[in-house]
Write a structure and sequence with these properties.
Layout lengths: L2 E2 H8 L2 E3 L5 E2 L1 E2 L9 E4 L6 H4 L6 E4 L11 E3 L3 H12 L8 E2 L4 E2 L4 E2 L4 E2 L4 E2 L4 E2 L4 E2 L4 E2 L4 E2 L4 E2 L4 E2 L4 E2 L4 E2 L4 E4 L4 E4 L2 E4 L6 E3 L4 E2 L4 E3 L6 E3 L4 E2 L4 E2 L4 E2 L4 E2 L4 E2 L4 E2 L4 E2 L4 E2 L4 E2 L3 E3 L4 E2 L7 E3 L8 H12 L1 H15 L1
Parallel strand pairs: 4-5, 5-6, 6-7, 8-11, 9-12, 10-13, 11-14, 12-15, 13-16, 14-17, 15-18, 16-19, 17-20, 18-21, 19-24, 20-25, 21-26, 24-27, 25-28, 26-29, 27-30, 28-31, 29-32, 30-33, 31-34, 32-35, 33-36, 34-37, 35-38, 37-39
Antiparallel strand pairs: 1-3, 2-7, 22-23
Protein name: UDP-3-O-[3-hydroxymyristoyl] glucosamine N-acyltransferase
InterPro entries: Hexapep, LpxD, Trimer_LpxA-like_sf, UDP_GlcNAc_AcTrfase_non-rep
Keywords: Acyltransferase, Lipid A biosynthesis, Lipid biosynthesis, Lipid metabolism, Repeat, Transferase
């Protein structure tokens, strides 16, 4: 798809310095962009690449426009504007409404005529599929599942019974929603399974990355609020609640009944233990272990960053000596008194 610089600037509420009639048909990085391609400068680390770019147009801030040798579109936030531009230049492919002949659909399911049901999809009794929904091959839609308007499921997504998915959601391949929570009671050394009778409720505009697992509630529901973004390979346990517009990076895990507030940012491979409360506007850096509730907004970290093995061994050895050091200091303080 091609669009003029003028049309693009209008969509982005930007101001043009240069050729407004130039055509843009694709995007590229600042150092590789060619005529006809759009690029952007969001990080001053790449400022030196701006002077040599041959792009058709560059999204820049006002302060960087003078150094741009090609057409500039001046915007407040180049990265955000780039995200909007990509959506215009690369519109999502959508299948026309219909049911593939190799799909299996229970006669009691309700499917909007504009929805697409791909090959080898199974839709069980009582399911409701909304307007414009796209369900790719191999998905399983369980009993009484409800999928909202314009939501898309990529191949091989499994939604267990009673799951509710909101509008305009995007679920990537391998996602499993509504599987049993990890609930067992110990009876004389043997584990007795606890029936998980809650649901999973997913709000609007939620994106769930490939191979995420979100467990059903043990009694109440597991809830993912509007605008939440989950990266690939994330585990969300039973009865967790994730607040609106929180983003969680890959390989993180949230144990049962923890509550994460709104507008939080959680880095990769973070572990959050069960029954905690994390307030709104918290950032947790990668590889952190959250073992207690967080009641104040801010940035939180734990763990040691990588370093040479010899230095790391020395540091860990010193940590092991802290108890002895503390005892010696205490003894010296007593003598001083």
């Amino acid at each position: 798809m091609a669009i003029t610089v003028a049309q693009l600037a209008l969509q982005l509420d930007g101001r043009i310095v240069g050729d407004a009639d130039g055509l843009i048909n694709s995007v590229a990085t600042l150092d590789h962009a060619l005529p006809g391609q759009l690029t952007f400068l969001a990080n001053t680390k790449y400022q030196h690449q701006l002077a040599e770019t041959t792009a058709g147009a560059v999204l820049v801030r006002e302060s960087e426009a003078a150094g741009c040798p090609v057409t500039a579109i001046i915007v407040n936030d180049p990265y955000l504007s780039y995200a909007k531009a990509v959506a215009s230049l690369y519109p999502e492919h959508r299948e026309p409404g219909g049911i593939h002949p190799q799909a299996t659909v229970d006669e009691s399911a309700s499917i909007d005529p504009s929805a697409w049901i791909g090959a080898n999809v199974v839709v069980e009794a009582g399911a409701t599929i909304g307007q414009g929904v796209q369900i790719s091959p191999g998905c399983v839609i369980g009993r009484n599942v409800d999928i909202g308007v314009d939501t898309r499921l990529h191949a091989n997504v499994s939604l267990y019974a009673e799951v509710k998915i909101g509008e305009r959601c995007l679920l990537h391949s391998g996602v499993v929603i509504g599987s049993d929570g990890f609930g067992f009671a110990n009876e004389n050394g043997h584990w007795l399974k606890i029936q998980q009778i809650g649901r999973v409720i997913v709000g609007n505009d939620v994106e769930i990355g490939a191979n995420c697992a979100i467990d059903s509630g043990a009694i109440g529901d597991t809830i993912i609020e509007d605008g939440v973004k989950l990266d690939n390979l994330i585990q969300i346990a039973h009865n967790v609640r994730i607040g609106a517009h929180t983003a969680i990076a890959g390989h993180s895990a949230v144990a049962g009944s923890s509550v994460i507030g709104k507008h939080c940012a959680i880095g990769g491979a973070v572990g959050i233990v069960g029954h905690l409360d994390i307030c709104d506007n918290v950032t947790i850096t990668a590889m952190s272990l959250v073992s207690k509730s967080i009641s104040e907004p801010g940035v939180y970290s734990s763990g040691l960053p990588v370093e040479g093995n010899r230095e790391w061994n020395k540091r860990v050895a010193r940590l092991g000596q802290l108890g002895k050091l503390n005892n010696r200091v205490s003894q010296l303080e007593k003598l001083k008194r």
